[in-house]
Amino acid sequence: MKILITGSRGQLGHDVVNVLEADHHLLSLDLPELDITDFKSLKNVIGEFRPDVVINCAAYTQVDTCETQKELAHAVNAIGPDNLSRCLADHGGRFIHISTDYVFNGKKPIPEIYIEKDPTHPVSVYGETKLSGEQSIQQNLNNYVILRTSWLYGINGGNFLKTILRLSMKDSNPVIRVVDDQYGSPTWSYRLAKQIAAILDSDANGIYHATAEGYCTWFELAKAFLSQMGINKEIVACTTPEYPTAAKRPMNSILENFRLKSEKTNEMIDWKQDLNKFVSLHRDQLIKEAVQ
After folding, report:
1. What would you measure as the largest C-alpha separation in the chain, in angstroms?
2. Is the Cβ–Cβ distance between 219 and 227 less than 8 Å?
3. Quick check: is 144 catalytic?
4. Chain Cα centroid distance, residue 155
5. What domains sit in the chain, N to C, each tagged with a CATH number?
6. Per the CB 3.0–4.6 Å rule, which of 5, 63, 119, 185 could disulfide with 211?
7. Sorting pLDDT into bands at 50, 70 and 90, what band is 173?
8. What is the C-alpha separation between 184 and 113, in angstroms, rounded?
9. Could you tell me if residue 50 is left (phi over 0), alpha (psi between -120 and 50 degrees) or otherwise beta?
């Protein structure tokens, strides 16, 4: 299968390439070789390569910065998917696009879950732009899969776990404060890449949720991670109002993989199992990066 992967050097894109490269003919591109906000450039690439599938891992994911960089966030998260889906509408092919839990407002009481058909209502610029991208794809194409995931972490690029580790290894940070009232499902980018591989072999179509099983708070995640890393650092739980950020976050980001399970294509497992595997595979590299 000929597959174009955009954002191939990002956290998820890196793992998608690693998972798929043995079995498929890949064209893996990222900035500066390919800018998904440039329709003409995209059209040329897709016209020449003629992929069977495009997997869009490109996104502007700096949630707080999106509040002040609205045009950039809109260009990458909304216009980019619109451009890609328009190109595929002309050339043919399947589109797999990565979206987010931030399309929901998170107002459901814990532990209620969000399924694919629940009404969307983003509370941040990031969420708004990602939802706009989803809507464009649905308007432009019939042959698409939109995968909403949450709390993504991996070995490539920056993420919450790497930030916590870096802070924990600095003597200038005697105590780390982490919010304990936002809930979600920490999802390993490698596991999500395996889920994408399974979707390629299925007839999946439409919107799907794809997150790890189970849920926790950011505080619980930080404690579990540092414990598995063998690092003894004091972490103090705080509330969202005690840790203000530029962008509002959903308090409940618990997504249920309802459609993947009902169609028997769910590859996602418990977040604690994946976190343990992630640490066992990458502990040395994580430590090395944290002390640089």
Report:
1. 57
2. no
3. no
4. 13
5. 2-291 (3.40.50.720)
6. 185
7. confident
8. 10
9. left
Per the residue annotation, which of 60, 126, 144, 215 is the catalytic one?
126
Separation CA 170–CA 233 (nearest Å)? 10
Q: How far apart are CA 206 and CA 203, in angstroms?
A: 10
Under 8 Å CB-to-CB from 215, ≥6 apart: which residues?
111, 183, 184, 185, 254, 271
DSSP 98-128: EEEGGGS---SPTT--B-TTSPP---SHHHH
Distance, in Å, from the CA atom of 11 to the CA atom of 29, rounded to the nearest integer, reads 14
Secondary structure of residue 214 in the 3-state scheme: coil
d(CA 102, CA 253): 7
d(Cα 273, Cα 70) in Å, to the nearest integer? 37
* Closest to 103 in 3D by CA, of 63, 142, 159: 63
In contact, 268 and 257? CB cutoff 8 Å: yes
Say whether pLDDT at 171 is over 80.
Answer: no
pLDDT at 94 over 90: yes
What token pair was written down for 218? Answer: 């950011």
pLDDT tens digits along 179-209: 999 999 999 999 999 999 999 999 999 999 9
Distance of CA 1 to the CA centre of its chain: 24
Q: Residues 47-70: what's their mean pLDDT?
A: 98
Alpha carbons 121 and 281: distance in angstroms, whole number: 37
How far, rounded to the nearest angstrom, does the alpha carbon of residue 244 sit from its chain's CA centroid?
A: 23
Burial of 166 (0-12, 13-18, 19+ CB in 10 A): middle
Q: Kindly give the pairing relationship between strand 206-209 and strand 144-149.
A: parallel
Residue 73 in tokens: 């966030």
CA distance 143 to 85: 10
CA atoms of 11 and 16, how far apart (whole Å): 9
pLDDT at position 170 is: 84
CB of 151 closer than 8 Å to CB of 160: yes
